[in-house]
Amino acid sequence: MLLRVLLFHSLLRYPSLRSKPVNKTSVSYCYCNNLSASTFMASSVVDCSTLVLCGKSLAEIEAAKAIKSSNTLKLPDNEELSIVLQSELDGENVMRRSFNVDSFMNSLCTDTFGRLLVWSPRLASTHDVVSHNFCELPIGSVCLADVQTKGRGRSKNVWESPLGCLLFSFTLQMEDGRIVPLVQYVVSLAITEAVKDICNKNGLPSVDVKIKWPNDLYLNGLKVGGILCTSTYKLKKFNVSAGIGLNVNNEKPTTCLNTKLRELSVEAYRFQREDVLATFFNKFETFYRLFIDQGFQSLEELYYKTWLHSGQRVIVQEKNDDNVVEHVVTIQGLTSSGYLLAVGDDSQLCELHPDGNSFDFFKGLVRRKLE
Ligand SMILES: *[C@@H]1O[C@H](CO)[C@@H](O)[C@H](O)[C@H]1NC(C)=O
Ligand SMILES: *[C@@H]1O[C@H](CO)[C@@H](O)[C@H](O)[C@H]1NC(C)=O
Ligand SMILES: *[C@@H]1O[C@H](CO)[C@@H](O)[C@H](O)[C@H]1NC(C)=O
Matching InterPro entries, A to Z (predicted)? Predict the structure, then answer.
């Protein structure tokens, strides 16, 4: 069993979702060249961010218009911003590789999530857009970028994301602070289940994306995506911004969903970001309702089938006076506060916390004994 931990650690030497720096000139060039709305062209050329607003139904389209005319959306550091409605873009000229809003909206069947979409060919960070404009956007709104230059990762790691990644962030609001730390697991599960769902619907062999606790997505032992949830609290409300990056169609820097399909000799189908995003929200809305009404227990079994850690043996280090003592413990699941539940060889249950210093959560785990 210990061998598994070692193997697991060796996987971590693979590169993360960081890729080569994007060639700025060529990226904005290829987009602005094919978008005819004059605001769009002008803004892309001078490298200011453009946000395109669109809605699923009349209600969200009206909300989008109101947001545009109130002109209250902002970016960090007062970066310049131009706002366009989808209806103002010349559809014929929108480049094929940019996000296909109609295809997404047609597959979306939610009441709340994903119905107001803010997309951009190129943004520093979708997470910043939703978290800085939490109050201006209806709850459940999503921001998507074709290319992201300063995507936020855990512990302020920045990653650069190439074309072909599904990159988005959305908002939700919660009241029960005890379960806020668990919502990231609901998000993770909704994305892995969305991929499975698409496979089932299209008669494909299963593409089994796994969760590496707490918030990475793995495929074939390689990192294929990640999740980031942040929240702020005021007046009994937690404003949560959830961000996801999933490499759908770009082999760089590690692997992607469509590479897996090729390996499985599937020729007739390729994952599309639009379909993955819509299916994600359809799943997420169902899971989120279960989570709020019945707690994380209702999703726990599925979560444990999807993560990589059941029965995993890990070493925790403990300082006793001046000696560092190592204990081997076996991961059992999650505790109610969202940390790892483990059992020692002496049957002592404990909760494992990251030490806050190590980039890899599984190095530098701190143990807290449970009764
Ligand atoms: C970026 O692309 C332009 C246009 O293709 C090219 O001239 C330039 O050398 C590239 N820069 C880098 C750093 O690759
Ligand atoms: C993009 O625009 C250029 C010139 O404006 C055109 O030649 C090219 O075919 C367009 N590409 C797409 C995918 O529309
Ligand atoms: C959370 O969002 C609400 C609007 O939905 C806003 O009134 C409140 O100030 C926000 N709280 C924080 C801490 O930003």
Answer: aa-tRNA-synth_II/BPL/LPL, Biotin_CoA_COase_ligase, BPL_C, BPL_LPL_catalytic
